[in-house]
Amino acid sequence: MSATDFHGVFPYLVSPLDEAGEVKADVLARLCEDLIKAGVHGLTPLGSTGEFAYLNRAQRRRVVEVVIEAAAGRVPVVAGVASTTTADAVDQAREWERLGADGILAILEAYFPIADDGVFAYFKAIGGAVSVPVVLYTNPSFQRSDLSLPVIERLSREPNIRYIKDASVNTGRLLSIINRVEGRMQVFAASSHVPACVMLLGGVGWMAGPACVAPRQSVELYELCMRGQWAAAMQKQRPLWALNQAFARYNLAACIKGGLELQGYGVGAPLAPQVPLSAEGIEDVRRALSAIGAL
Questions:
Q1: Total structural domains in the chain?
Q2: How far is it, in rounded angstroms, from Cα 93 to Cα 8?
Q3: pTM, whole model, 2 decimals?
């Protein structure tokens, strides 16, 4: 994969911090190394599973630094940028590019609702601020202002905005996006979609937290889809979808961190005021991981 051609499985990485608020670089680097050895196609720090909304600027920067250093150019690193202001988002994007990020995952945070023209201008500014490709991130369950289909179509005509990761639960919307952008923008799925179905529709992969705890199984599924072995892909997909459903019942960061703890990574608890998994949640995650051979 070239540094600007993104496809395949991109785990949304966690952000492990110690009690003093320092990034646990050794834990994060080890996770990155193991994910790369498992065959993932890229790494995404500061996505939703990375708890970007709960980190300060120094913590975000350190997470990006550690991941870029750990990747060492072997897979592309697409780092998350999120802000309520365009100026700050642009500043973050430029800084991540200077650190060596291969792409930007662009997220819009909003307190007041933003009209379509404002949403368009925010993402256009990020795309114009960097030379690396930009991935739009839309998650209507958590965002005050979402990307509408007309705005997505307009942004697909911006030369540097090349991808979109859609975390809606509406798979039909993904096909609508694919139809509207006419090849100018490629679509990644999220854990809220059935990845094999998205690949059949024309998606190029998925960016998702569960891939952190099931990287090998996720890569196997992707390869089956790429070979057009759809019956085998769906056989692989069914237990993986049960894993996604287990995560959907709880806080996502708590689930992924809890799963990684079960696998021996000392990533710690989700950042306050989020709460760790309950005993019931830990058992749900343990069962889901055991069922796919990830424990």
A1: 1
A2: 23
A3: 0.96
